[in-house]
## 1
Amino acid sequence: MKKRSDMECCMLCPRSCGVNRVIGQRGRCGMDAHMRIARAALHMWEEPCISGEEGSGTVFFAGCALGCVFCQNYEIAHVSPERFRAVSVEELADIFLRLQEQKANNINLVTAGQFLPQAAEAIEMAKNHGLRIPIVYNSSGYENVEALRRLEGLVDIYLPDMKYWKPETGQAYSRAADYPEVAKKAIAEMVRQAGTAVFDERGIMQKGVIVRHLLLPGHLLEAKKIVRYLYECYENGIYISLMSQYTPLEQVGEDPLLGRRVTKREYEKLLDFAIALGVENAFYQEGDVAKESFIPPFEDAGVIL
């Protein structure tokens, strides 16, 4: 009954829209109560300690509570619920187990917050049927702490973004002026749950937190403030992933900043700043990664395995 009451007056995310998703109303995430998946497959494009050589067993959920205008997964974050396949808790648990059979290094839940109660239930069910690999919760960082607490003991690795430092930027790009404060609290809860990073003999993460920051064009100063904050709060107790792969897609329109890619010089300045600060546990990107080819293909009805 708890899962149903969540959907009857949905307060799962910081938007707290309170809609009745059970009767078909859509939350700010764009989703009703039916859990929908856009893609479930081995994924090679995460950090090396997540994907490894075998791949991360990645499940992309449809919809998103944040809805960034520049979203790299825009076609699944801003969709009608009917476009992608609805799955039950039992089916999702079976998908986890099938990904494990394919030698996935982990189960990687991408933007699952709008279906957090069902996802948590599926994790428990899969674990009861032999799921042994780590669970990764891959998130925008825009999460309710109360909701995250339901994942304690179920999620091994948290992989949140920290997108914005200034409320004005959060409002402009995600209509979420509260993003900076919400993300700070969410990341603190994630660190509390997952603790210090643990890796296996292959260098694959088994436990811990990686905070991502996607450098946006023209926002170097904001990026530096985010890196400083993360380092001063957690030092090298977490990993920071500094990403240069921003790709300007059609939906950003004529925005003078978002309409271009990040320059090599902008990204080098961010890396130099992190090194000078003392950041040791970090990931960075080499080469030209700002390509649409790095965005997974999403088909109508979803690609399942």
Note: The mean pLDDT is 92.
## 2
Amino acid sequence: MLGKCLENVRKNVPLVHNITNYVTVNDVANVLLACGGSPIMSDEPEDVEDITSICGGLNINIGTLNKSSIEGMFRAGRKASELGHVTLLDPVGAGASKLRTDTAVKLMDEIPFSIIRGNISEIKTLALGSGTTKGVDADVADAVTEDTLDSAVKFVKDFAKKAGAVVAITGAIDLVSDGDKCYVIRNGRAEMGKITGTGCQLSGLTTAFAVANPDNICEAVAAAVCTMGLAGEIGWSRMQEGDGNSTYRNRIIDAIFNMDGETLDKGAKYEVR
């Protein structure tokens, strides 16, 4: 059951190195603390190899790239791979610019990622090596819907096999696949899209879940995705008159902080295909 994955995070307190974007770095740290993990943030090339060496997992997010952070990503990624650590790539905005697309594709070529997590447009960009996205948001033409679900499940399975990674596509319907099976997840609220950084938070959360559950990374990723979506539902149910997206962000983090394995098992909405 997925709840066991959350319990393992709380028991093991995984230390996660995050090279993430400066728009959401504080929220990523707080979500990791909320789920029972421990965050370290560092993107300085001279620092990252030492930092990633003492961690159990590496979360690379390309949301705000610069030449220094790109070098840090490659150096940290190579060191994490050398040590056999869990590595996650969040290709934020891949397809929106040449630099983002080229960086994400090159990272995939040079680093054997355990997990790749993004929206459908970003993942299609990686699969094709090129593409377009609407900024950091998925193109509506790519959206995973009930009508396109069968083809989307086939796509994510095929890409997971090709990439040799667990692939998570998040949106209105979330898909998590290791190439053989695919979790189809229907937790979450549309209002989560009004908060900057829920995807970035999920990438940090997912890395922690994978580090704490190394023998079943696909299930751990699915558990992380369900946890985030369920927290969005719980957080929304506690909104009061006058609350807005800032309060909603905090309520989501609080819901993760207070969640236990039983709550996750009861609230997770998924099927396996």
Note: The first strand starts at residue 15 and ends at 19.
## 3
Amino acid sequence: MENNDGLRIGVLGGTFDPIHIGHLLCAEEALQQFDLDKVIFMVAGKPALKDFNSIASAQDRYWMCCLATADNPNFEVSTVEIDRVGTTYTIDTLRDLHAQLNDEDELFFIMGADALRDVPLWKDAHLIDDYAHFIVTARPGYDFAEAKALLAKRLPQFNYNLMEIPSLDISSSMIRERFNQGQGSRYLMTEEVEHYATERELYTWQ
């Protein structure tokens, strides 16, 4: 896929339960480092490799993403996956998005390094980089060596670019636990998302 003056569109998929500043920073860094025109936040539907029995509803996660990204004209939020019935697969999402592009446009799928080792297990894994370039970003303290070696063995034709971002040791699970313990989440997420999660009592289960 050569760049010939089409749009360069990033896709950042995630559960976003809840979305936090680490997600926003990742998207912004991708915009800057890869000269993207926009980043689409793809709210996860029902991925095959994840347990979705104990997370906030798709509608709540969608609205939190909308609130978090509302002030950035280069960010969009998509319901492509949560609108799809049944198990959702990355290859289907990329095909759906690719079908909406002009011939000159390019997709850039942004994923965390911790998901890299699972790529060979994805549906039609050998076809996914036909539809998008892949950007892999590391989390603090993550060692690429094992994942890279496993990927090279199981799916050697898969191509990706590494992206370095400022180190922020923040996770959605940590924020959910802080909510449950009655601790504040100020500066870990946007004020609008914090208010939404608090009012909806999304992460209080004691």
Note: The two ends are 50 Å apart (CA to CA).
